[in-house]
Amino acid sequence: MGASSGSYSYFEHKADMGIAGTGPTLEEAFSQAARAMFGIMVEVDQVRPQKQVSVECQANDVAELFVEWLNALLAEADIHRMALARFRVDSLSDYHLVGCAWGEPLDTQRHHPKIEVKAATYAMLFVGPEKGQYVARCVVDL
Hints:
Layout: E1 7-13, E2 16-23, H1 26-41, E3 51-58, H2 62-80, E4 82-92, E5 96-105, H3 108-111, E6 119-120, E7 126-130, E8 133-141
Antiparallel strand pairs: 1-2, 2-8, 3-5, 4-5, 6-8, 7-8
Helix pairs in contact: 1-2
């Protein structure tokens, strides 16, 4: 995996947390938002990419697909008891996404678990171009 050309950020939202991913493509924006979400839960820089999990999801439009992507990643992390930190969207259309993530079994000593994210929501959902980049953002339920 090469160097990333995107970024991620946080924004305040009552008791929940807003996440946003940006990048030159929607795929990169989705990947950065996933990193932001997992960054709420663990120290993502401490997570080694030892195991890959695959994700495939469908939705009625690209914004819903973004929420489905994030929730599918949360489910995979929970099922496999993993901390995830690297994300890639391989195929993205208005209705279908195929991607993957890398991580390792959760290690409380090294990953320093923080706040659990229960789900990505449709609150403040936006997916599209903004200021010359693509942005994918929503609020996650803590």
